[in-house]
Amino acid sequence: MLSKKTKTKYTEKKKKSKDPKVTFMIFDKWCKRCGICIELCAQNVFTDDEDGYPRAVKPVECNLCGFCITRCPDFALRIIEGAGTNTTV
Ligand code: SF4
Ligand code: SF4
Q: Minimum-distance ligand to the CA of 30?
């Protein structure tokens, strides 16, 4: 049987792994809603909102490959390491 300490440690670790690893900054003013970032992300991090802007719906899946940032034609996307989800500017 697992000790209380071990269980607590395991639960904390599990909780942490569900936390987003990154903060997404999406500059709506610059974004032309081309959908490139949505299509290119192999981790399916993004989906488009009702207005067609990309939103990171699965930030925890991001592996920081940087593909979406380098392929965005309008420099409308930024990713910052650390907890968080979406920040629209
Ligand atoms: S950095 Fe890579 S994994 Fe993360 S959202 Fe962009 S394309 Fe997807
Ligand atoms: S690739 Fe850039 S311009 Fe195109 S939808 Fe994504 S953030 Fe907007």
A: 2
Which of 47, 65, 71 best tests ligand 1's pocket when mutated (most atoms within 8 Å of CB)? Answer: 65
pLDDT in tens, 46-61: 999 999 999 999 988 8
CATH number of domain containing 84: 3.30.70.20
Give buried/exposed letters for 43-73 (b at 16+ CB in 10 A, else e).
eebbeeeeeebbbbeebeebeeeeebeeebe
Q: Verify whether ligand 2 is closer than 6 Å to residue 79 (CB atom).
A: no
Whole-number pLDDT of residue 60? 85
Is residue 37 assigned to a domain? yes
* pLDDT at residue 89 is higher than 80: no
Domain that holds residue 28: 20-88
Q: Atom 3 (ligand 2): residue with closest C-alpha? A: 31
Residue 59 within any structural domain of the chain: yes
